[in-house]
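For practice. Supply one:
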Amino acid sequence: MATIAFILLCHKDPQGIIDQANRLTAVGDYMAIHFDARAEPADYDQIREALKDNPRVTFARKRCKCGWGEWSLVEATLHAVEAAVEAFPRATHFYMLSGDCMAIKSAEYAHELLDREEVDYIESFDFFSSGWIKTGIKEERLIYRHYLNERKHKFWFYKLMEWQKKLGLERKIPEDIQVMIGSQWWCLRRRTIEAILDFTRQRRDVMRFFRTTWIPDETFFQTLVRHLVPETEIRSRTLTFLMFTDYGMPVTFYNDHYDLLLSQDYLFARKISPEAHEIKRRLGQLYAAQGVRFQISNEGSSLFRFLTDRGRLGRRFATRFWETESSLGRERELMIVICKKWHVAKRLVERIAALTDIRVIEYLFHEGSTPLPDLGGIQSTLEKRMRHRRALMRMLFDYHGTDRMVVCLDPEGLHLLQDFCSDRARTRLLEVECDFSDDYLIGHARRVGLAGEETARASLERLLPTIRHDIAHESDRIRDAGFDNMATIRQSDSLAQNAAALAQFLSVSESTAEEILSHPHLFTD
């Protein structure tokens, strides 16, 4: 009878991890946990303490600081696998999971499926010919060395790649290796895992190569399994049900997807929304159930494509099922800085980014040149950003791996404020009131096309009262909207007054707020 050792990579939600570990081990399976070294030490201590008496749970002896797309994810997986191999000699299969995964079949069903064939389950397609990569760089992932994280150091990541290209520093792939690619969510037999661990000790050249590739969690195990296991013993598929939108982001499942998930030909599903408590409860009970019959229709992916095509062709006739509860996320906090003087807001958020761990983005709905990651094209134009604003914000939260974000909006974007403030996410507003000199208003009139460089001064002076009234009117509309959780800082107020408002807005101490506001030219033109 198959016995599974789950390899769990996680970085948050300690109680969810504890529940998942107890649930999956209660029926005789095992779990090895790698908890990201970047995460809160108190969270890790909570997990260790809660699971210390569970003999079917072990922990990676070494914890890595993990970054998306980095070798650290593969290294963390190997540490957890090594711990599982040593701790659980009776485990027959090793199954990769994340904290967002949940079982959509019973343990009884899963064990029977794994006993049915003596095979490994791992997506493994030829890197160059399969077309598995839809967007972004491809062969550059392999032939150049990547030492920086693209998400954290976007400019230098691509600059380093450009320098290598100009200097002709392409490298060769190890000659006896055919690089494969696929999902990181695999289920491998014990002998395959042991062969991989032996390979990592013997082939230092291959290990050096993969250490500086980009997104190696999609290529490392996929390549080694093909190198070590006969093709007849590989099923090039994952047992974890996951789908991606047109923008390359994973589809999230909610409470009303329970029946849909159970009918898919998979053992687990990713991602389950943190807010979907009812489906988590029902799926949690399912894994230990006996004698449950599953009617497999496997329509999830085809239904997704069908509805996506209808929306793309302008024939959308119902809410797309993956957009149910299309919220930014109840657990997330969106903080919006509202300021007419864009340079003032930019200086402020630059200080916030420098002195806190809060991710900041400037005028993404007003300024086309605002630096944004490649999100499959949704970020490419202001029109697309505006049309898909909630989807864009959700993707940015996911991309940056954060639950707190500050963005800047112009006061004319009242409809954006109303939309975001009606979301389930916690939304806070900070209005920055500036003084407007005549010279600034003249410059503003020229920037927005109300006047040109040759417009007579007398004409400009007649225009100034109207512009000043317009700016005041925008501010009045925002106040009349009666938004909750709104604070204000003013150029005319004291540092202490403004620090109190900023501290409330960011949930930081007033001393930190004062340090943020201490920019010597914060309000100057």
Summary: Confidence is low (pLDDT under 50) at residues 310-325. The radius of gyration is 26 Å. Residues 382 and 493 are 34 Å apart (CA to CA).
